[in-house]
Amino acid sequence: MQRFVISQMLLSLDRKLLRDLRALWGQAIAIALVIASGVATFVNSQNALRSLESTRAAFYERSRFAEVFAGAKRVPDSMKSRLEEIPGVAHVETRIVEGVNLDIPDLNEPALGQLISVPDTHPPLLNQLYLRRGRWLKPGADDEVLASEKFAAANELDIGDTIAAIINGRRKQLRIVGVVLSPEYVFQVKPGDIVPDPKHYGVMWMNEEALSMAFDMEGAFNDVAVELLHGANIDEVIFRMDELLDPYGGRGAFGRKDQISHMILEGDIRGLKTTGLIAPTIFLCVAAFLFNVVLTRTLALQREQIAALKAFGYTNFDIAWHYIKFVLVITLAGAVLGTVGGNLLAGFFTEMLARVYQYPEILIRVRWSIVALAISVAATAALLGASAAIWRAVRVPPAEAMRPEPPANFKPTLIEQLGLGRMLPNVARMVLRQLQRQRIKTCVSIFAVGLSVGIIVVGQFMQDAIDYVTDLQYNRVQLYDIQVNTVEPLSTDITHALASIPGVMHVEPMRSVPARVRYGPHYRRVAVQSLPTDVTLTQLMDRHRATWQPPPAGLVMSKILAEQLGAKVGDLVSIEVLEGKRPTLKLPVLALLDDIAGLNVYTSLDSMNRLLREAPRASGAYLRIDQNQQAEVYQELKEIPALAGVSVREYALQSFQDTIAQNMGTIKAINLTFAVIIALGVVYNGARIALSERSRELATLRVIGFTRHEISAILLGELGVITVLALPLGMGIGWSFAYLLSTYLANEEAFRFPFIIEKSTYGLAVSVVLTASVLSALLVRRKLDHLDLIAVLKSRE
Amino acid sequence: MSSNPPHRERVFEAHDVTKTYHMGEVDVQALRGVDLELYSGEFVVLLGPSGSGKSTLLNILGGLDVPTAGTIRYRGDVLTDFDDSALTGYRRRHVGFVFQFYNLIPSLTAEENVALITEIASNPMTPLEALSLVDLAKRRTHFPAQLSGGEQQRVAIARAVAKRPDVLLCDEPTGALDVHTGILVLDAIQRINEELGTTTAVITHNAIIAEMADRVIHVSDGKIVSTDVNSTKRRAEELEW
């Protein structure tokens, strides 16, 4: 009874709709999958973008993330009020920030810690900490610390565990009482690194009194964070802060845009804004195209049905609406699947973000407004694709539609007009003429299959670029095993001391000088790397692996830095040194280095020491060690009080690979899935339509004695030509996308993707798409076996 | 059936052939026990109303369909034992088909449509020779869309005979044509039968065409009801309807 009522409610046309869908289910699913991919990528990228923005905004606001930061050598507390008087400054928080070497239980190699003071009596007002586990510091406790979450997790440290720190030359046990997050360290990266290495770099917060005593900083501070009033002129504030702090060894104030964690987050959000719409656009364009070709064919087959419906009195609108519903049902099915898929993607995405970011929580929740937008964009694209086909079929007058369509017009192809036709077998001619007759469809099909090749190339390109960078950075630039930094610039005698450690084979000194590099109105804070001219353990290398020597006089600088300053080779730039006697040096830019990470300035160690009018000094050194005596060397280094930091290249590399590899794996898997969906969607639909259009011809050929094998060649030849033409085009598309992406990403300060595509990337893209094509072809090929020879011959199409 | 010329070689021998189609839940008996012999070089017309089973019979002789029961021999080979690929080979080597709706390949010219066959046959005539047989040599570079219905059908005949088939099977070859063009097409078929000696079977429901035949086989309700031998065959150009 129930069933009867429902079937009564369905109009006959709607029943036809359901049956049409059932008849075309393979094609409908293929299109729905493409739509689903478009909706999923749209929902994911827009959700992720908004979630990242809102997560960050919420965390910054709740924790009162400072807007200006400055470091100095030692500033008396009395200067705090002077800083507060600067117009535009709302709140000033002073603190002590010190780098220390850490000795972590179960960790052979040394690690680096950053200790930050918090007021004993009250929590900090700016850069407030989010307590994830444990408790706050007890007032007056001098051995308690709060540890950053990723550091604790990477070293499997828990509340109550202790680690040793070399504080001002003395070994001190620090007990972890809480695990915290800070807006300053959402992206926690050791200065000079490009990816986090939480195992070997940790940030910890400690009571101010204890820290000031440990570092002889009573009544003084060496770091300041500032909150601004609404509408304050940040450049003005920075200028005044520098004026006040310069006498106390100020290292230059800077705004959020130069704060490393913020800079990285900003880059990611900007990246998502630009690239987030590319994938959905591709998918929806492909879906529109598929609707167009499938409906064009379906409507051609239903030409007489349409005529009959019109003869019965259905209006053009009734019939058009009928087919629009067909489109909408598929689109909606795809959209529902896409929404589910988008949430799944969002889950992966959250995991990826959680791997690198430290937020209290990253909640990528479904925003229904975005889902609604995605669905309406998908429906619009689908209808745009379908409308031409529907309109073309619907407007034919009934009497004309009752008659069969006139035979298709063919012409000799260009190849034949050139006189090369004689070389072609007839079967090849059939294929080529068919392709030529439906030029637009052929071109779009080639382009769409090409896109799937391109998508894989772009996905793999990122891997190639990362592999290249890893090789460049860790095998070619960094030729040392260990890099050490001193607390303060020391006599270059340190190199002898280091060289005398058993197991150290070779030592080269370096000096990193904090400075403002200024040209005209522009300036940036940098560390000028001063290296021996005959340095061997590190290289000045550009993205093409060309090397430079540290210049005996003058500077070599990152190309991107020169562009930001507006400086060219030969220009004199000012180096305002931010330590020691703080001289301002005028030095010529001798060469620009098109490097891949950071804003770098290089000169020779001799010339820097000469210019600073100091005895030869070093702020660090590069070491090569005997790998058999690793543990001993580490142990010795941990005990040297003058060292503020020890980085081991091997572990930096490992950390880089761990973080990147996991995220790249996810991205590549997603990319491959999408590329296969497009390739399958386009080739399978193409094959089904070709089969439908050619079944009469193919049956005729079977009747007159062609084997199944031979007619398959004709049907699949068309797809073969499309695929074969699509492959080089797709490589071109992939190349261009990758080029655009690398150009866009080439302007990032922290890390610049080089443009590297390995041959194996093209190989992978081609084989995946080829496999998808062959698979679609085989699915359709099976249908050839059921070709009804007699029925085809009896009827006129 | 005793009136067959005894000196001629038997090309086809059908014995008690039945064919049942399962159309959903209904069984349709298209052939109900047909016995038939066709002889080398003869021109046979199968005459009967639509639905009488004559097309089914022709399709079975041509290796397009298999009977439900009964045997068919082609020059001693048992056609009914052939599998799909053997049937394909049989069609390829021995049978020429002409259909009511021509079934030319629209993307190939007249000559190329014929060449489709000559490329896979073992001892074909050239496409041009075949087109000359149907008086279409001068139209050889035309595509189907540029030819009239009669011309398209003559190209189809050229395509069917280009491989020098042993039998030519024509299913309502004039069904879609007007009288004048229909006669031109029949004339082509008749000349091929006479000049090449190809055993020819033509299906029609037009009794006039039967006057061209050596023998006329009347089919009705899935059975052969009678066979007439024409003492005098008429030329195609003498026919009118």
From TrEMBL, chain A:
Top-level taxon of the source organism: Bacteria
Cleaved signal peptide residues: none
UniProt membrane topology term: Multi-pass membrane protein
Compartments where found: Cell membrane
Keywords: Cell membrane, Membrane, Transmembrane, Transmembrane helix
Pfam families (UniProt xref): FtsX
Any single biological process term in GO: lipoprotein localization to outer membrane
Transmembrane regions listed in the UniProt entry: 21-43, 277-295, 326-350, 370-394, 443-462, 669-691, 712-741, 761-780
Residues in ABC3 transporter permease C-terminal domain copies: 278-398, 672-783
CC terms in the record's Gene Ontology section: plasma membrane protein complex
Keyword Protease: no
Cytoplasm found in the keyword field: no
Family of this protein: Belongs to the ABC-4 integral membrane protein family. LolC/E subfamily.
Name recorded for this polypeptide: FtsX-like permease family protein
Automatic annotation (TrEMBL), chain B:
Record-level Gene Ontology MF annotations: ATP binding; ATP hydrolysis activity; transmembrane transporter activity
Gene3D superfamilies named among the record's database cross-references: P-loop containing nucleotide triphosphate hydrolases (3.40.50.300)
Keyword Nucleotide-binding: yes
Pfam family, one: ABC_tran
Protein origin, superkingdom: Bacteria
Keywords tagged on the record: ATP-binding, Nucleotide-binding, Transport
Cellular component, GO annotation: membrane protein complex
Domain spans labelled ABC transporter: 12-239
UniProt entry tagged with the keyword Lipid biosynthesis: no
Family: Belongs to the ABC transporter superfamily. Macrolide exporter (TC 3.A.1.122) family.
Record-given protein name: ABC transporter ATP-binding protein
